[in-house]
Design brief:
heterodimer, A: 75 residues, 0% strand, B: 182 residues, four-stranded antiparallel beta sheet, 7 helices, 50% helix
């Protein structure tokens, strides 16, 4: 509860250099859980605009097998 | 004319000569139809995040080119018919970003494919250091990944139960949009 209240600032608004590109594998990996789920806005504090960009990038990366859809699929 | 980028994955089972033929073939198809190539980036063989057509590795190639939109669909049709191409995706390019335009050592590809992945490790080391270790000793790392996933599983499921109901619908909608763009 406490944590949720503290995290309010969108990382991408603060740091404008982030490249929302599906090929940006390393950076995108920070925004998925170890099961492969996209980390929700309420946990990361990302603003709506940037979360949208992030999701499209992650989904494109998933389609190109750069990121996993689920952890089971690693097998 | 717009600048596009087409990324596609050639099955890891394809031999080097066939692979080069595939790459050259689509390049030719595009140039014949008036595309101007800017760059071809070869990521080289990579571990796929999940198996596609029972292949766990694939060779990634990215074309960067200027072209009229009309010539892209014919290429996609050809790619659909080619079973050796596992995936493709064409997007309007937002510039040739140096971070992603990496090449495996193009001249000594023969050694890369013919011999063990160890040689390849040198080529793609800078790109995905952690991944390359996975490639060499895949069995070991997979186990650790699984272990890690299992540890964290209870937490994540607790948290995300309430979102699970909302998400699939959203995702499906977004996916549809994407396909149209591509």
């Amino acid at each position: 509860m406490l944590n949720r209240k503290r995290v309010k600032i969108c990382k991408f608004c603060e740091n404008k250099d982030f490249d929302f590109n599906y090929k940006n594998e390393k950076k995108l990996r920070y925004f998925i859980t170890d099961r492969g789920k996209i980390i929700p806005r309420r946990m990361s504090g990302t603003c709506a605009k940037h979360q949208r960009k992030l999701t499209t990038a992650i989904k494109r990366a998933r389609y190109m097998a750069i990121l996993p859809f689920t952890a089971e699929m690693i097998r | 004319m717009r600048t596009y980028e087409t990324t596609f994955i050639i099955s890891g089972a394809v031999s080097e000569t066939n692979r080069e033929a595939i790459i050259a073939r689509y390049e030719k198809q595009l140039t014949d139809n008036g595309a101007e190539f800017k760059r071809i980036a070869r990521w080289g063989k990579r571990q796929l995040a999940y198996p596609i057509n029972k292949q766990s590795r694939g060779y990634y190639v990215i074309y960067y080119y200027d072209a009229d939109p009309a010539i892209i669909n014919p290429m996609h049709r050809e790619m659909d018919l080619n079973e050796q191409i596992l995936r493709y995706m064409t997007l309007i390019s937002d510039g040739i970003h140096p971070d992603y335009v990496r090449d495996e050592g193009t001249p000594d590809e023969s050694t890369t494919t013919a011999s063990t992945p160890v040689v390849e490790k040198v080529a793609s080391d800078d790109t995905v250091a952690s991944e390359t270790t996975e490639e060499t000793a895949s069995d070991e790392t997979v186990e650790t990944v699984e272990a890690a996933a299992e540890e964290s599983a209870p937490e994540t499921t607790d948290e995300s139960d309430d979102t699970a109901s909302e998400k699939p619908a959203e995702e499906a909608a977004a996916d549809d949009d994407e396909k149209e763009v591509e």
